[in-house]
Amino acid sequence: QVQLVESGGGLVQPGGSLRLSCAASGSIVRINTMGWYRQAPGKQRELVATITSGGSPNYADSVKGRFTISRDNAKNTAYLQMNSLKPEDTAVYYCNAQVENKYGKFGSWGRGTQVTVSS
């Protein structure tokens, strides 16, 4: 079993900042790519950012220049620093990790954390 727990969401005014964390625990040999996705009401889940085990990031065009993804491999934790937040960033943010353990390789999801950008 692998668990991903997100934290750091909340209510913030437009132009504000939040930092999300995603901590992985359980039966883990290696975590490859980690990523953040989001789902707004009535919309499909979409990619926000991913980061490889070597630290190479990838961003959706809508967040480039505003969001920064990072990770601490020793802690099995990924972060998403979100600056210059806009109302359209409002969504539930989910963490994903591509995990390897003795049972094989698979993707794991967290339960999500709500981010609301509103004045």
Care to describe what's here?
The structure is a single chain. This protein has 119 residues and is mostly beta strands. Helix content is 0%, strand content 60%. The chain has no helices and 11 strands. The protein has strands at 2-7, 10-12, 18-26, 30-39, 46-51, 57-59, 67-72, 77-82, 91-101, 104-109, 113-117. Strands 2, 4, 5, 6, 9, 10 and 11 form a 7-stranded mixed beta sheet that branches. A 4-stranded antiparallel beta sheet has the order 1-3-8-7, with no helix packed on it. β7 and β8 form a beta hairpin. It is elongated and about 45 Å long. The mean pLDDT is 96.
Please tally the β strands and state the result.
11
Order of helices and strands: EEEEEEEEEEE
Please compute the radius of gyration using only Cα atoms.
14 Å
Number of helices: 0
Determine the mean pLDDT.
96
Q: What is the end-to-end distance?
A: 40 Å
Helix fraction, binned, reads under 10%
* Major sheet description: 7 strands, mixed
Structural class: mainly beta
| Basic shape | elongated
How much strand content do the residues show?
over 45%
User: Which blocks of ≥5 consecutive residues have pLDDT under 50?
Assistant: none
**Quaternary structure of the protein:** single chain
